[in-house]
Design brief:
The structure holds two protein chains of two kinds. Chain A is mainly α. Chain A has 13 helices and three strands. A three-stranded antiparallel β-sheet of chain A has the order 1-2-3. In chain A, helix 1 packs antiparallel against helix 13, helix 4 runs parallel beside helix 6 and helix 4 packs parallel to helix 13. In chain B, helix 10 runs antiparallel to helix 20 and helix 15 crosses helix 17. Chain B is an alpha+beta fold. Classes of the chains: A mainly alpha, B alpha+beta. The interface between A and B is large, with 64 and 46 residues.
Chain lengths: 382, 636
């Protein structure tokens, strides 16, 4: 047995590094990519503020407020020893399920889905926070089962853990967020070493059972899913948004029209530009180059997340990194894909770029936990 | 057991690295896919989409032209344009959740029932980006409140728009008509000639018949819009709008006022429900006054009439929206004896000195055709027959002419055909012939019906305008002229675009002598005492009364009747009285009192009142003794 460092759970006597960790191990590139993306997000908030960007309540001022809250959330999460998350896992789990239930009870219905909770005039999506909570809970669960990761029961357990949250957001209905939970599940399981055979089998089983499940759905539920898959059939005009979005992107060209010069978006052609279609505005105003920069920043961010996970040498760290990276890449695929007309229209935000406090705070907490993992990592250097 | 031992060269550890690599590969594929797609859209197809974006943003939209004004013959404005506030809603900008609150607030501000607002919104449910008009002519203080509350009234827009104002309202409503919003059905045809969804169009009156002149030509401009359809800026003006031309009517508002006053006075004295007075210049066919009562305030329509007001007008049993001067036809009664007399003279049935016996009745089989006074007048020549309006005299003439010759002469005088006046919904009237009766009833006209046709009863039907026009032809010496309502069409700078000249329908195939005889006979109507109450006017008047029975007999066996009087006034000077033998009359008038229910002829009273007022004869119009002597209360 080659001598390698051993990391213990909190409370264990064999500790290789101080509990407090070292801020010298703070991952600067991760913070850089995150802040760069957040600043671009703020620029988009500026350009999308109809009226004065500095008016109270404008998209930009609200963006600034959430930016500040996100910095605090990030710092607190980074300072907090992530290993405690394993202890709090059940509490976090119950609280996030509770918030999702509360959303269903007191939530505000916007565009036909009950996803938002309004507190003091600010609407907030608890499902955003529950994403990062589910990553933590899943990572804790997998860490606990680290000796039996290849077992089929790991898969079953992880699936059962996600199931309540999945069902609760489906009821809203928010198929998009439900699929984010699935992507987190797959990402975390895959990267932490779950049995590929069982995962493939489970995937095959799910696909095979789709027709059966479909027939069990009521007609209106089927309609809802169909309109998700085929926005052109959506009477709310999602098809219109997709076309306008493509026109906006296309007219941006290589270098874009410059900030605030978007013809489409500046003239309000994209009805939900400030939310789900913010990336379309970015592509129009900053062009292909701007989009490429954003993609590269995301690639950098995911790279740092995976590196920190790898270096953590802990199942929790690996699984958390896998879940978080899967969430980011999945949301990128769905949101940017939707904006570019490759994916159906859903309410899935592009992290940092889409204006929305929940999404930003959620990703900030996730990255904060990554920093906490980095600071308290087992393996130096790299 | 809880510790996770890493770094051992065991399969799971190796697999972990591969998994990280695989994960990285997935990320690379996703980002590569998205980058390719965006590169395709932005760089490869960029020019195409940039073009679409321009198109999206810039649109051509019409510029409305100012509607032409309407003046009377003296240049007094009758219809003008004034700015007014309109409130409209763009349904796309009104979130469904706020709809009830917004509708309720607008309802209380605008005093429009909430159901009306919702109905308007739902009517255009499929056009969510099109503006829907909620209220027109909104008071400026209310408009200001709505603008101030715009934050809580999403989708609600206040615009300034020109609307019609009718300076004299009801007085000339039957001539001017009114403008209103184009209907969806009309728009199917009108859209291609440039009418807009939210456009105004002349609905009736000269506003409708001269729509093309008044409207002008809309221009167009290129504007930049946002997605809500709001105009951000004007890029360029493509076509300047051409303002509509203005109309100068033949109407003289002072004469119109006199005519209405006379008719209104009668409606009050004898509780008349409907009536008509038309004043024309027989030399030119120009209509100087055209009054049909009841009338309506066309400003109600210009302001955007409420459902309640509109229903009230439609449901009024006296139908104030109908122009009785030309849109309805009635038995012309004895005024029609002009036709019978001229026909008999021209066809050589009688000459001016032929004398016929008149008695209490004429008999066909067992059926009696009565003289109107049930006694007869003894021997009469044609002037006497006309002056006394002897029915039995004219039964004989009609019987001698036969229905088809009678119809020939009626047609000659313009009956049974539209005069062609430039006002909408003109009725044709009926001149019965054998052919006509065959086609309608499948049988020939009976001999008794020929009698009735000769005195303007039975199947005969005419509009007041037709009756007056036949007397115009008599007065001017045989020219049947098209009645004119518009004198000149004026460009916005005041220059004359078009001037209406007297338009001859036909020169009557009647000898001047016959017409002269009948003019003198018409004067004798007044002087002989049949229409004695006009005789005390210091004025030479010639005319013919008519009492046209219609409907069902009352308990005493009497039929209800309309009163007619058609007259003309030969030219006169301070020292020179008018001469009915001449063809120089410049004023002809018809009065029609629907269901007049008076002992005498109400129409003559109306004409008398008008003439005293019009010629300023210095008589106190309301003097009770004048009234007492009038046909309203006495006479036979």
């Amino acid at each position: 047995m080659t001598a390698m460092r051993v990391e213990r759970a909190p409370g264990s006597t064999a500790v290789s590094r101080p509990e407090s960790g070292s801020w010298q191990s703070f991952d600067v590139p991760l913070a850089f990519f995150a802040i760069a993306l957040a600043v671009i997000g703020l620029l988009m908030a500026w350009t999308n503020s109809t009226g004065g960007p500095l008016d109270p309540g404008s998209t930009f001022t609200r963006g600034l407020m959430w930016f500040a809250i996100a910095i605090v959330a990030f710092s607190v999460a980074a300072a907090f020893d992530y290993r405690w998350l394993r202890t709090f896992a059940w509490a976090i789990y119950l609280v996030s399920i509770g918030l999702l239930i509360m959303t269903l009870i007191i939530g505000v219905t916007i565009n036909g889905a009950q996803r938002w909770v309004s507190v003091g005039g600010i609407t907030f999506q608890f499902s955003e926070l529950s994403k990062v909570a589910m990553i933590a809970v899943l990572a804790a669960f997998l860490a606990r089962r680290q000796d039996n990761l290849g077992s089929v029961w790991t898969l079953v357990g992880a699936g059962l853990l996600i199931a309540p949250a999945f069902v609760l957001v489906m009821i809203q209905p928010d198929l998009g967020t439900a699929l984010v939970f699935v992507s987190i599940l797959i990402g975390a399981l895959f990267i932490s070493g779950a049995s590929l055979r069982w995962m493939a089998l489970a995937a095959a089983a799910v696909i095979a059972s789709l027709p059966v499940g479909w027939s069990l759905l009521r007609e209106y539920q089927q309609q809802r899913i169909l309109s998700f898959l085929d926005p052109a059939s959506d009477p709310q005009g999602a098809g219109f948004q997709v076309i306008q979005s493509q026109i906006a992107i296309g007219s941006g060209g290589l270098f874009g029209r410059g900030l605030t010069n978007g013809s489409q978006t500046g003239a309000d052609f994209l009805p939900v530009q400030s939310t789900d279609f913010a990336f379309a505005v970015l592509l129009e105003e900053l062009g292909f180059i701007g989009g490429l920069v954003v993609f590269l920043l995301f690639v950098g961010l995911i790279w740092r997340i995976l590196v920190i996970g790898w270096r953590s040498e802990s199942v929790f760290g690996v699984a958390f990194a896998g879940g978080l990276a899967a969430m980011v890449i999945f949301q990128m695929l769905v949101n940017a894909g939707m904006v570019a007309g490759m994916m159906p229209v859903t309410g899935i935000p592009l992290p940092f770029i889409t204006h929305g406090g929940g999404s930003l705070v959620s990703i900030a907490i996730g990255l904060g936990v990554m920093q906490s993992i980095s600071i308290r990592r087992a393996r130096p250097g790299w | 057991m809880n510790d996770y031992v890493l770094g051992q060269p065991q399969p799971p550890r190796m697999s972990l690295g591969a998994r990280f690599a695989a994960f990285g590969l997935v990320v690379a594929i996703v980002v590569g896919l998205l980058t390719t797609r965006i590169f395709y859209l932005q760089v490869v197809q960029g020019g195409y989409y940039a073009g679409l974006a321009e198109e999206n943003r810039q649109q051509t939209q019409p510029i409305r032209s100012a509607r032409g004004l309407i003046y009377d013959r003296a240049g007094r404005p009758l219809a003008i344009n004034i700015p007014s506030y309109v409130v409209r809603i763009r349904p796309a900008d009104l979130p469904f959740g706020q709809r009830d609150a917004v509708v309720e607030r607008l309802s209380s501000l605008l005093h429009v029932p909430a159901t009306d607002i919702i109905e308007s919104l739902d009517r255009y449910a499929s056009l969510r980006f099109e503006l829907v008009r909620i209220a027109s002519d909104v008071p400026s203080d209310v408009a200001r409140i709505i603008v101030e509350e715009s934050r809580s009234l999403p989708g609600v827009e206040v615009d300034v728009e020109e609307r019609r104002q009718y300076e004299y309202g009801a007085l000339v409503s039957h001539v001017l008509g009114y403008t209103g919003a184009v209907t969806a059905e009309d728009l199917l045809e009108l859209e291609e000639i440039g009418y807009l969804n939210d456009d105004q169009i002349g609905k009736t009156g000269v506003e409708a018949t001269f729509e093309e002149e008044l409207r002008g030509a809309y221009g167009s401009e290129q504007v930049e819009r946002d997605s809500g359809g709001r105009v951000v800026r004007t890029v360029q003006i493509l076509d300047d709008p051409q303002p509509g031309t203005s109309l100068e009517l033949t109407l003289d508002i002072e004469v119109q006022q006199e005519a209405e006053e006379a008719l209104r006075w009668a409606t009050e004295v004898v509780d008349l429900q409907r009536g008509v007075v038309i004043v024309m210049n027989p030399q030119t066919g120009e209509i100087l006054a055209l009054v049909s009562l009841p009338n309506y305030d066309n400003n109600l329509f210009a302001r955007g009439i409420s459902n309640t007001d509109y229903q009230a007008l439609v449901e009024d049993p006296n139908r104030p929206l109908v122009n009785f001067a030309l849109s309805e036809q009635y038995p012309p009664g004895s005024t029609y004896k002009l036709v019978t007399a001229v026909g008999a003279l021209e066809d050589g049935l009688v000459n001016p000195s032929t004398v016929l016996e008149t008695g209490p009745f004429l008999e066909i089989g067992t059926y009696k055709y009565w003289e109107w006074n049930r006694r007869g007048f003894g021997p009469l020549d044609i002037s006497g027959g006309f002056a006394h309006s002897s029915d039995t005299f004219f039964y004989q003439l009609a019987g001698g002419l036969g229905i088809d010759r009678l119809a020939h002469w009626a047609t000659e005088f313009g009956f049974g055909q539209r005069t062609g006046v430039d006002l909408p919904a003109e009725a044709r009237g009926i001149v019965p012939t054998n052919e006509w009766k065959q086609s309608v009833f499948g049988q020939d006209v009976f001999p008794g019906e020929v009698y009735q046709a000769g005195i303007g009863q039975g199947y005969d039907a005419a509009t007041p305008l037709q009756v007056l026009n036949s007397f115009n032809a008599l007065a001017n010496g045989g020219s049947l002229l098209k009645p004119q309502i518009v004198r000149r069409v004026l460009a916005p700078d005041g220059s004359v675009v078009r001037s209406f000249q007297p338009e001859l329908i036909r020169q009557l195939g009647v000898s001047p002598d016959t017409l002269r005889t009948m003019r003198l006979a018409a004067h004798e109507v007044v002087t002989s005492g049949h229409t004695y109450n006009l005789n005390d006017l210091p004025l030479v008047v010639a005319g013919k009364t008519g009492t046209a029975e219609f409907g069902l007999r009352d308990s005493q066996g009497r039929l209800p009747f309309h009163s007619w009087f058609a007259a003309f006034v030969p030219q006169f000077g301070p020292d020179q009285p008018g001469d009915p033998a001449q063809t120089d009359s410049e004023l002809a008038i018809v009065a029609f009192a629907y269901d007049s229910n008076t002992k005498g002829n109400a129409a003559t009273e109306i004409v008398k009142y008008f003439l005293q007022d019009h010629y300023d004869l210095g008589v106190d119009l309301t003097r009770p003794d004048l009234l007492q002597r009038g046909n309203f209360y006495g006479g036979h």
